[in-house]
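Collaborator request, handled under Task 6.
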Amino acid sequence: MKTVALVSGGKDSCYNMVLCQQYGHEVVALANLLPEAQETDDLDSYMYQTVGHQVIAAYAECMGLPLYRRRITGRSADQRLVYEDTQGDEVEDLAALLAYIKQQHPEVTAVASGAIASDYQRTRVERVCARLGLVSLAYLWHQPQAALLRRMIDSNIDAILVKIAAAGLTPRKHLGARLASLPAQLHALRRLYGSNVCGEGGEYESLTLDCPLFTRGRIVLDSWQAVTVSEDSMAPVALLHPTAFHVEPKQPAAGSTAAAAGAAAAEVIEVPPDWWPPVAQQAGEPAGSAAPSAAKAALDVQLSTVEGGQYCSLTASVAAAPAGADLDLSSAAGTAAALSSALRRISDALPGLGLRWTSSLFVHLYVPSMAQFGAANAAYAAFLPAINPPSRATVELGGNAELALVVEVLFARQPEGRRVLHVQSISEWAPSCIGPYSQATRHRGLALFAGQIALDPPTMGIIGGGIDAQCVRCLLSCQRVAVAVRTDLPQSLLWCTVYCSDASGAAGRQRAAAHLAAFLEGQLDTALLEQQPQQLQDSSSTEQQAGDGSGSGGDSEEEGEEAASDGEEDLELDEYLQPPAMRPHWQPLLTFVTVPELPRGVLVEIQPAACLVDESLAEDSSSSSDEEEGEEAAAARRSRREAAAAARPAGSSMPGWIGRLRRTSNGSSSSSLWSPGRLCKVHSSISRAAAAADWRWTVRIAASELAAGVEAAGLEAADVAACKIYCLASLLGSQGGPTAAELREAIAAALPGVQPAVVPVTAVGSSAGAEAAILLEALALRS
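Structure tokens returned to the collaborator:
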């Protein structure tokens, strides 16, 4: 992609440009924001680094690229984590700058920024990109800082410290010191004070003087002044004010004409402070007005509701078009029309239930043809919120004569506490969610993960290697998302749906089950990924080079040797990249579903749900104890444990808060995962033989098992939040087989008021080898 790079002068933004080039993008312009007053060095900003801004103009000459600059006139008006467009905010200066550049360079489709750990900065850049139709490239996002620092230095990022503000850093020793000389000392400070080796906690700021993309010249700092901001004895604050510098030309290759072209392009353009782009439409609650006109087509849409007391789910099912119908629902226009009609039906029902799209937690989307995924996404985006959208899983519906499309949406009646992880930037961390869906949605102790497919995060391409490599990639991405929302998936997984495509076959389900089991046991074979050997080699190289840094300029030789010996590099993950300590004590519920096709032709899609570490759905983490909490909290915890043990039905052997119970009867079997009075997830499956003999009787038995599971957990039908019936597509609506309406009636008889979603599939089971004809699911929740 043609890319404009946001440059502050720091090492992070420069190294991100290097990675953009490595991943095949072309930086065609630079963008920089600087203080309104030229004499200001350090702006009080949550968003922008401005120390050393006097030097940034030289970047145009060093790279042979145009540099666009705008002075910051706004302030940090909206300081919430998720930014909403606010007039007078400093983010609007960024939006104006990028809008101006896009006007001058219509070929630009991406923006590069150097965010590593700051959600505050990342979400604001992503918001601006979404407004302007640009893709955010943030390859440093959530990379381990120790390894990242070494990668920067090994990539010849030549940077100096221009601001210090941390214990252990002093103006005399460290201001102006080259970053390459400091790793050992930075690691020593990390061990002493818990500081960030890349300066993510504001410990220091840097200024890049040379990097691989500076092909025309390098910056030489001739003189500078040290400015003391605070003389705090523990953590003095000081910055470097450049007073003189020049660009030292680099010799171009023999016969190269690039130097002349670069000189012509190396222009510095200051965007007028009074230039503002046209007012963009504010994003928020979508009205569906942008939905395709095809949505008005006359389609048969059935709305089913599960009106729980605290949660509610709505399902819109579009009937298959009769033979000879004008609109082919598997075409792009037909898919858009069907999905728009379904979402419109749900939207129309929300006011009467006291709900809004912004209280949605999860969307299951079953489309007629995955070949029309793009058309479905466009229709979907017209209804779902662009800011804080729910998580989503999308698969192709099993071919049948009754249903063409199904949309199931879970809502929280009290959305307070709803949090989403919506990382739209392309990075090396995990696949981005550029569309209107999030990687995970959290609400009152639960984390609902989007369906994860085998996307290579930095390229967003499907990885090779077959079902094995795809499973590993999916699970690694799921775990990275889990850590970001503060849980540990192998320890906290409650239930998981594993979708396999028809192309993967029965063997694919078995392989997926094996990899999932290995993942839960901490034995996932990451070597199956094609890129993994190189990653391991890089990590090994980093470890071998640990401790090679020497003391900074001004130290004696003895001081430098002491710092190096005390501050050898360690590759321990940063705290925010480490999974929380948890203790598993239950077996998660698993569902294996085979469908005709999955997004982008992948073989597997994994959709987990987990509990969060700081909620009472999970047992205490191993890092806490009753004594640490105080007597009152400890007594309350013991009381809850005793209540859980007393409420455990006979046959459940699981200790602690969450238990498992399995029942088997003639033709059906059920499993439930429950936390007394809070949560219950029940599966009840019907064998193919039992369904063939008498599906009506076995469905009634299976439905009663759902009701029994909910009751055993101390919950009621009014607590049921969602209910679903997977049915073999070959059985649904066939001669002698059940219709969707008949299946819904069977559930309603056992759980009054519950109208389940009916989903036709190729195969389904509660294990990889199980071959059920019908599988019923119910989720009951009470906050």
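The cover message to the collaborator said: "The chain has two domains: 2-270, 293-530+581-622+638-781. The radius of gyration is 29 Å. Please let us know whether this matches your experimental observations."
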